Amino acid sequence: MITRRNLLKASAGGVLLLGGAAASRSGEVPGGMLNPASIDKYVTPLAVPPVMPASSSAGEAVDRYVVGIRRFRQQILPPGNPPTTVWGYGSKGIFGTPGPTLEARFGRPVQVTWVNELLDKNGDALPHLLPVDPTLHWANPGGGRAKRDSRPSFPTTPGSYRGPVPIVTHLHGGRSAEHSDGFPEAWYLPAARDIPVGYATKGSKYSDFAEMFTTQYGVSWRLGAAVFRYENNQRATTMWYHDHTLGITRLNVYAGLAGFYLLRGGADDLPAGVLPGPTPAFGDPQGTKYYEIPVVIQDRSFAADGSLAYPDSRMAFDRFAGPYIPRSDVPPIWNPEFFGTAMMVNGRTWPVLTVEPRRFRLRFLNGCNSRFLTLKLVTNPHGKRPVPAALPFWQIGSDGGFLTAPVELDTLLLAPAERADVIVDFTGVREGTPLYLINEAPDGAFSSTAGYADPATTGQVMKFTVGRLTGQDTTVPPDRLDLPPVRPIGTPTRTRKLALIERMSSAIPGGGSSALFLGTAEGAVKAQMWSDPVTENPRVGAVETWEFHNFTTDAHPIHVHEVEFRVADRQPFGGAPRPPERWETGSKDTVIAYPNETTRIVALFDRPGLFVWHCHLLEHEDNEMMRPYRISP
User: Fold this and answer.
1) CB burial class (10 A; 0-12, 13-18, 19+) of residue 279?
2) Which end of the chain, N or C, is less surrounded by CB atoms within 10 Å?
3) Can you give the pLDDT at residue 21?
4) What does the H/E/C string look like for 152-216?
5) What is the 3-state secondary structure (H, E, C) of 598-622?
6) Mean pLDDT score of the chain
């Protein structure tokens, strides 16, 4: 039997698994999966996400949007392959995955009505595209008002949930009031005509937040929608929006629910013309050249018919075929991690971008469910790993805006949800030169000894072809940039010792994962479930150090909602502290907590409300590795 430990060893050796099967020579993997090696690379141009069309009128003090969530078909695989049915955000007929980019200005509020339009042409609710494990602690609309947002009990192992789909959108990196943060229990179903009798149509926190919003802004929420407001009074930075529904975030994001939110202006931005531009704007004519491009990298697997593939049983991870309920604690469908077999960039597999021999600004986002990325620019994508870098990245920003100074890097490490604002200088590169963005992180749980992604598939990301220079580049070279200062947070007055914990099931020989937890490490280590009382409750104005003691075998990207923090240090258990990495000198909202180490962050908590902190490996988040926390007045 393949256990978790054996799976990690297999991935370290270069075996790529999904559904427990490696690719065969026939062009498909067992079970009707599309062989990723059969997908043509670098034949599809990189898609640049368009800008979200606004619904507000000229002269208003607020930028208003009505954004729907719909099902549609998108050509993700190269032409000649079937299109893929996905979900995505959009407005006024412009829908996609990733969704259109929301462009925001410092100090100018954005108000978004997020509408759940997961309906068929008759107005009936659509089921999920992917298998939903109803045995987790999740939204559970079928439990009705009394048992929504709970872990249901079953006498025998159930099948996948097939009812109407709940959604709620979170602005990742946003500093928002609690009613607009996308709290996991503030979900809502579409306004469908066929919602089954007895179903809950909204989560347990939805009405509370709707009332708060109406009281503050005089705007009511309607059935099948929520209205969120983003004040945009933080540092200019790269953010992203994505679904955050309790217990199915992994599925909703994998189905396509993600997009960029770019905040510009204010004292923490640079003047126009210093950095490469332009970036897309609404109404741009076709063929407009962009020198600033948002780039989201995601891994996906596909069936032979072009549909998204995602495991429908625990067999996909460790071959465990049960028994499940009531004889073990192993969820029957949930998988501890997911690693797709193909790389998708801005909604297309292995695309190509023609660049000029000048500077480009690339805003990278790791949008994968579980996969870490170690990115590098090389001339030979098939070269023996590690491949020598051909061009450096100049990282100028991360999650919370600009760094203290530009950092020159041969490799760019991004955990899921992390962002990197990067300058790539193609100046002087000969016309016609091909360059490749590759990934040298493993096809499995991330560690320093886990090997490399498959060089033929997931070890490649996209291609750049250097074309002809069409105009003078007047931007500032990255090594000469003077970045806005990063303001100090203050001196911490309290330290919280927190724990990252994995529960291994006795039902699986060798120990398979049944759940992951966050908890406390004040003396004895104690795992806390999502439903347990709040244990982290800083007061408004408090500056605190949070220590993440990682007792698991995985590296976890820990995201704290609402705040921007600084990475203080990391310390191996029993060892000496080491400072943050060079690219962690700015503000962050997501930090990598390595196994058998303590990772320390410092944050100022300056807005009251109910928020969450969690692991951003989405499979972990969906099975207990998320906790509510409250900032008290």
Assistant:
1) buried
2) C
3) 31
4) CCCCCCCCCCCCCCCECEEEECCCCCHHHCCCCCCCECCCCCCCCCCCCCECCCHHHHHHHHHHH
5) EEEEEEEECCCEEEEEEECCHHHHC
6) 94
